Amino acid sequence: MSEAPRSAAVASAFTVVPGAVVDERGLAHVAAPAREQRELVAGRALAPLEDRAVLAIDGVDRLSWLDSITSQALTALAPGTSTELLVLDPQGHVEHAAAVVDDGVRTWLIVDRSRSAALLSWLSRMRFRLRVEPQDLSDEVRVIGGTSEAVAALEPLAVWRDPWPAVAVGGWGYAAAAPHPGESYDWAEAVVPVDAVSRLAEAAAAGQQPIAGWMAVDAVRIAAWRPRAETEADGRALPHEADWLRTAVHLDKGCYRGQETVAKVHNLGHPPRRLVALQLDGSDADLPVGGAEVFLDDEVVGAVTSVARHYEEGPIALAYVKRTVPVDADLTVAVDESRVAAAQEVIVPPDAGRTASIPRMPRLSRRR
């Protein structure tokens, strides 16, 4: 099980569902995480994303303003088009990530609830004299996830369709795997009124609508190598290290905070760490937690960011390791007082950057 982020407890509407387990992130599972993953991927289940918050940006300058202060080119964003942005610190480290969709009148940002207050505060300070009005709508709306077709049936106020793993205009993909494991990743997040969540909980309690908890959502995301701010933005992460340039960074847009580092690392160097996917030894019932140390022999070379037990692949994880760790090295991960074997799959190659010549690397065999 992934380590739940430290945040305020969620008052979940889904405690009425038989078998529901609720924790700090909201609905964790309904007693069958593997089945929930299958239902989610098949488009039958919906996932209440109670660890998400929704910010709205109103005002005629909203898109050009966001363009000027974040990593994404947004001035010409067409209504209904989904994209992603990052807020970086002056050294280029990821502070916030947001799913972005504009409806022609308002820009919707879906963010991690634990970071929403800090992001809203920063946005409010950056308004200056522009005609923009950022606000937190989390008391009025909720977020429900699932396949694009599944969430469309909710009659949402807005829908963000995850562009991952496509390389957006102005972006750059580092992962060399062919095919990318996220090619079949169909994920969307719908912004709905609060009462829609109550109706979903009632339908799930009556056995009329399958639902899935955050454990299932995480497992599907990790299998697609999809980074998330709550876990992969660890305070010193550069977007290059998680292959985030493909969906969240426009390399040819104007100046923004952290752009100098983004350009320098991409054009002239290589990121100091690289995100890897780990296939964990499944013989142990316990899984590592977020932050667990990754070892090469007896040397600590990285740390786990996300962990899950996938319904097809078994125990899997994402982790940052030093760039210099050989791509074929046998790694181990700390679990309690012991370690488990971890076979790495290359997400970001050691020589990642504009000047790299990246060969097509075959993926390791998947356990079925």
From TrEMBL:
Q: Name one Pfam family in it.
A: GCV_T_C
Q: Which residues form a coiled coil?
A: none
InterPro entries recorded: GcvT/YgfZ_C, GcvT_C, TrmE/GcvT-like, YgfZ/GCV_T_CS, YgfZ/GcvT
Q: Does the keyword Electron transport apply?
A: no
Q: Which residues form the Aminomethyltransferase C-terminal domain?
A: 273-342
For this UniProt record, give its keywords in alphabetical order, as a comma-separated list: Methyltransferase, Transferase, Transit peptide
The answer, when asked if Transit peptide is one of the entry's keywords, is yes
User: Mind listing the GO biological process terms from this record?
Assistant: iron-sulfur cluster assembly; methylation
Q: Name one GO molecular function term.
A: methyltransferase activity
What NCBIfam families does this protein map onto? Answer: ygfZ_signature
Q: What is this protein called?
A: Aminomethyltransferase
Source species of the chain: Microbacterium hominis
